[in-house]
Sequence to fold (482 residues):
Amino acid sequence: MSDIHQIPADLVIHGGKVVTPETVLEASIAVRDGRIVAVGAADAMPAARETFDASGLHVLPGAIDVHVHFRDPGYTHKEDFESGTASAAFGGVTTVFDMPNTIPTVADGPALKAKHAIASAKAHVDYGLYAVLGEDTIEKVPELVEAGIVGFKCYMGNTFGRIPSPSTGAMLEAFEVVAPTGKRISLHAETNSIMERRQQRLVESGRRDPLAHLASRPAVVAVEAVARAAILAEWTGARIHILHISSAAELRPLAEAKARGVDITGETCPHYLMLGEDDYARCRGVIRVNPPVREKENQEPLWAALLDGTIDMIATDHAPHTPEEKTRADIWSVDCGFPGVESQMPLMLSEVAAGRYSISDYVRWSAANPAKVWGLYPRKGVIQAGADADFAFVDLDRAWTLHDADLHSRSKISPWDGRAVTGLPLHTMVRGRFVVKDRVLVAETRGFGRSVHAIQEMPAPQPKHADQTLAAVIALRPEEAA
Ligand code: NCD
Ligand code: ZN
Fold:
């Protein structure tokens, strides 16, 4: 008898359809100490203290949403780590990466430690924390890595929080410094000088309608930024990730960089796949987000890029604000973004129901690929022995309607209100523990979430042109050597 049969499991899940990136299999899953110990036939499972009947449900690896804004500390009237992670759990999301545009900005060790304390006290699901890579934080890189981050965030363009965008010179130096750490740098890839100038002119011209926001940020803003970031990554060997890909046009510099061997990955969000310029009239300021929701012609190329792997994953850019902040008459004064961590899975599963792609494609984009790109695979992102028992139990046939009022985010205003969807995450499990069961939050899991930086294993760093970095050339003092 093999080892797994001698020690009883804590839990065996029977009757579910287990989804992998390749296939769907009817299998039982045994869980011990928060990890999967076996996946297979029911009669091959060890004895268990508890069993759970998942008949009629698909068991998916919990989604990994690498782009959320939980606003804590600083903007807790919009969201906090508890409400944000509860919302995630209701959306079948078991790991989130939280962005650093909070107050204070996560730009040094003390700010990062303060956010770790908040997150570990409040989180219902696992999380990673981002730190800002900006003009003034380059020398903080070692202390930030030391204090536990999942990656760096670089704001090439202005967005909520008004974190100043670094010059190209500062970006090059920052990439030089991060490359030897092996950490990935996520980019808000919109070039600031282009859109600031356009916005200024549009304001002066008197435009303040919702579509003026789109007019201020045409796709070239993203194309230029993606191409420039890819050149700096190629030169330095820094790993980069393009956040919220919104346009067909920026797929070309992304695909070209991949073809050149740059370690560059990308995400898109449901709103770029499913909403278009026609939705501005209905949603007004509610749809205002950076980058903007664009012309409908972008949707099919974005879907195709997901299917062919040019875009690696789905994230949400969950960006909660209050109704007052989203409904101001002047579009320029409306806060950018809306909640999404809870609606991503039902929106994307609706396209599985419609036959656009398979459920295996979906788990590749929502779980397996994010885990691979961020050094968490195969500990997370897959249902197999050795992985964390992070699951979304989903009724793929359930037709229902998204209502903002039902969101568990503190922000109950989004462009998805009233949208018909098919596919409901019924229960969510994190490391063997139900966090949501029968659509009810298990309140005691507050503080159960853990930072994933401790289990992150990025591949060996690949710095390039190390002899030409600013640090290297400053250290070189030919006059002293002579
Ligand atoms: C985000 C926010 O509100 O924090 N807003 C947005 O429009 N996407 C910031 C960001 O990701 O750009
Ligand atoms: Zn952004």
